[in-house]
Each structure stands twice: as structure tokens, then as C-alpha cells.
Amino acid sequence: MEMLRPSLYQSLDEAKAEIRLLKIDSLETTFELVTVSLKDAPGYAALSYVWGTPTDQASVIIQGQHVQIGRNLASALVRLRRPVDIQDDHSLGGQTFRRSVWSCVERILPFRTHERHPALYLWVDALCINQQDLEERAWQVQLMGRIYSSAQVVYCWIGSIDYSLAFNSLKKVAHEVRRQSRSQGVDTNKCEFQPRSLWRYPSLCMTTDLSGYFPSNKAWTSIWKLLDEPYWRRVWIFQELVLARRAILIGPSDATLSWIDFDAATVSLFPLGQRLIRGQKQKPFFISSMVWLKLTRIRPSVAAVLVRSGRELLELRATGHQTDYITQLEWEVSSFAQVFAATDPRDYIYGLLGITQLPISPNYNGDERTVSSLYVDYFDGWLKAARIGSANLSILPLSFLSIAGAGRYCVPSDLPSWAPNFPENARSEKRDLGPENTFFVGVTGKYPYVISMTRSLFVWGFQLERITYVADNLATDVIDVNVKKFLSFVNGFLARHSIYISGITPLQAIWRLMLQKPPRHANEEMAQCLQALMGLEAIYQPVLQEPKQLTEISATLDPEALLNAFPDADLWQYFREAQSWNGTSDFSDIIQLQYLNRHTRCFESESGYLGMSYMGIAEGDYLCVFCGYDQTAVVRQSNAGHYYYVATSYVLDIDTQSLIERGKIEPQWFELR
């Protein structure tokens, strides 16, 4: 947004908690800014929206001045010139019906007149805060909690796409969820949507779109696209949804959807999808197979799920719940920032202060408050809160190491290597590596702490052993290169080892490392491995520069080699059962291998353990376990003696106790910088 002229922005009185409101008149083409105090403000609405890219601009007139604002905001203001029905969607009544009918009549009458509706007073951050005044911006951010919680309604502008079909369809689902909750005598929050109730809505049961390559259902497709909107991924929007007394989703059409209905519908659909995937629900005859498949892919927006936790915090705080529990819950809610995105790195912390009320004051003056110092202080506060040790809530002190590390993102950063890197985490694909390492569970007395002056984190733990071999693959989007590097590592590992350190065969070790989950039985493990390798061969053999790599691995198709690689499998039983297994497993496993080849590197340790970590690991790094962290860590020692945190890792079948006893390793304090 361009710098507005000073006449638009008169100074606000912080002592009076003054804010500006944008006055919108339905018959005027210009807007007006008015100053009010939150202590006696008139009824107003607040807008929740995505700012968009700085280059996509539109012009509006405010008090006679042309002002450049984001095009997405301009579209929202155009919509809000028309009245919005803020009746709760489940509150049926004649007044709502009559208003809907009259709205239709107004549209078709050629002699209709333009009615002047009452002016709307709207709080919208881009215009109501002087964005060029860093001091005003900082203390207005501190008022966000009051601004959104005091608004009569928060309008959630999803964007310029018309989601009328999704809105109306979700209303139907929400209506059925409430019907089911009443019949079962349970709260809607605990009610799972029952697909048999869809018989009342044929448009949600049948294939309705034959225009694309695959048949589809327009309603469920619209819902899926709605849930995938960037709107749900912004940290500020999460706070706005938590604080709103009443939230209404709006778009360019007159259709609306209350948050009550959106929440009831989308959250109840998620457990249904999980059951369908596991085959725990039988498809009703009136639902098409395509719709049934679509239901398995419906996921609630992350915001919708986490908003409930945020509102729980507000409710507990209002009822005067025990202080220690509230303090820990505040910090835990602050950690939700890791699943959202923000333009300014400081907003991952500032953007949730209206909910969390952490003892941190917003400061956008880079000369006084660097991003690095803010993150160090934030993590220091996190550690102190985690140390409270409430019996009702457990915060893992070093849990943020999962989104930290010099080797995790491989981009320059001013942050200490151990600090949570919210900005890069938002830009990366989310994936956790492997199950927990529970070696330090229950150990107390050696608590991690921060020294702000040197930006150091001190942690207690064991330096297990050195990484001696790292797969020679680098991050690249050239798929055949990734596959080539992966297959080279596989062939080398198979040649170096006749048996893995935990007693399984090398090919089993490779496969279990890739999937990071134990097999249900040996036959299926063998089937998955072979299907994936055969799939890679079929897809990439023509483009590989050294096709013999795949041919070497394909030797496992020989019955004798198969039995050697999977000694617990029954080869002939495998061939009899293979026809009945899930035919999608081979494709999903290939996708898994492609992802791992692009984002991770395999390694071996001194003892021969096989592991996986992120692209920045190197030979000579150390595997460690830390008190207060449930993953195996990778660190790099500096010439000065301190360490840099590299990344989280997954080490297959690692026996931490045996390594410590065999190597007579003593625990130590690690200084991470």
C-alpha cells in the first residue's frame, strides 16, 4: 500500500485506546476514516482477509484522496457495500426467509430503487493503522485482541472466487451434524458425520460434472478448493478467527456461511474420511464411487481445528483457571505459528499475542529489535514456561528443534542454528522424520537454558557417534538425477553389508528406512518394496544415464534372492495374496521415494547404523540425544568448541543404551549457537 498523506492519519491517543474505523456508505463511492475509542466505540465490524502481493494493486478514494490498496482488499470493500445477512445459518425464521425473497425480487424488478442501508463501520488493518508509523503499528498490534473480540461481527473474505456452492453444501452437512448430535445426545464437537444422511441431498451423492478428464462432483470439488484457499494458512487470520465473537465467511456473491456451520461441517468430515480410508465404513448404495473417494480426501483446514484450541484458552482464562496451566497453554498455542505463514518474520510471534498474551511487546523498529533477538527471547520464554511442569499439560522443552537447524533448510539465516525457523518452515514441505527416541524420557535435573548475550542454547545429552558416510545426492528438481543418486546409494549399501546391525537384511533396512514404519507382515513388506522398485524401473529406466542400476536391484525379483532379502516371507503365499492387496500402495510408495530423494539424504554412522536426515548434513557430523527432546539430533562441532545444530534425524533401530555402554560415553553439556 502506498504512503497515505498525513491529513488522513491524525495521531491516535494510546491512553484512550483509540482506533480508526472505515465508514462505508452503500450509495457513496468514497470512504471515510473516523477516530473512535475502544472504550465507547459504536457497533462496528472487522475484516479478516489476505493482503496479497504488493504488486497487485487497486485504487480507492478515501476523503477525496486516491489510495492504492491490495486488489483483494478492494474486492472485499466492493462486496461490503452490499448488506450481509449475519443471521446464524441454523437459526431458521420467517424474517430471514422474507429478506431472501425480497432480495430476489429486487434483482428482477426493472423499476427497483437503490435503498440507502445504514453505514457500515469497518476495522481493516491496512487502512485503519498508519503502516508507515512503526510506533503506532506496534501498539495497535497490542490492541488486536480487543479490536477483534469487540467487533459485532468479523467478515471473513475468502477471496474473489465464488464459493456459493461450497457454502450452501456445507450448510447442509452442518444441519445433518446437528440433527445427529441431537439424536445421539452428544455435542456437535464430538459428532462424526454419517454419510447415510446424504440421501436427502442428491446433489451431494451423484457424479455431477463430466466436463473434466475424470468425473467429479461439483459440490465436493468446490468444498475441497475452499479448504485449500491460502486464506486458512495465514497466522494473523488464525488469531482473528479465534478472537471473533461471530464470524461470517463471505465471497463476491450474496452467499454467506457462518463459522458455526463451517466448523461443525468440516471438523466432523475429517474422522469420516479417516474411517473410509481404513475401510471401516460401507458405502451406501445411493452414493457414487467418485463421491465416496472424494470424501476420503476432505481435510479440515488447519485453522478450523486449531481455532477450537485457541478458543479453549480464552474460555479458561475467562473462568480463572489455574495460573500454571494457563501459562503453559498460552505458550503451546503460540507454537501453532509453525503451521501458518506470515510476510514479516516477527509476525509469527506478534500475530498471536492477542490470544496468547505472552510477555512480549511488539517492536517493528529493526534497529532496536532484530528478528534474531526476538526469537532468542521467545525461545527463552518457552523454556521457562515448559519448566513449570504442570500435571495437566506437558510441553517438550526442545520440541522446536524439529523446525530448526542449519542443515534443515540450507538457506542463510541470522537466527541461531537452534532457534525455531518459522519463516523457512512455512516455505518448506512439512515432514517429520521417524518415530520418537525415548531414551531421555523421565530424566530431570538437567534443564536446557539460554544465554542471550552469546545467543547460546545449553543442552544436556550424549554425543553418540560420528556420521561417516553421506549419500551423494543434492536437492534438485531433476527427477532422474534424484533416482540415480538414490539407486547408487542402495547398490552401495547392499554391497557393503551382508546383514544390518539390528539383524535384518540390508534390503529390508533400506526399505524400512524409506517408509519409516514397521510392516504389518513380511509378505506385504516384500510386496511394497518390489512394487515400488518395479515402478521406478518402469517409469525412469528410459531416462536414466546408467540403467544398469535398476537392473542390479531388479535381481531381487529372482525367487532365491527374494527369499534371502526377506527371510520371513512366504514367497508362494505372497504370489497368492498379491492380487488382493491395495493396488494403490505401489504408487504411493513411489511418491514417498520421490519425496525423500528430493528433500533428504541417507547416511551411515561409525557402527553401521543407517539413517536419514535433511540435505545439510555432512560427513563428520555427530549423532546426539538431548534431554528434553524426543528425536535423534545431528550437530556439528566448531573449531572454537561449541556446536551448531544441524537437523533432526531418523536412525533405523538405533540402540542408544548399547551405544553409550559400548563406547563408555559420558553425558555432557552442549553449547549450541
From TrEMBL:
It holds the Pfam family HET. It comes from the Eukaryota. Residues 118-240 form the Heterokaryon incompatibility domain. InterPro entries: HET, HetReg/Transcr_Mod. Transmembrane segments: none annotated. This is Heterokaryon incompatibility domain-containing protein. It comes from Fusarium ambrosium.
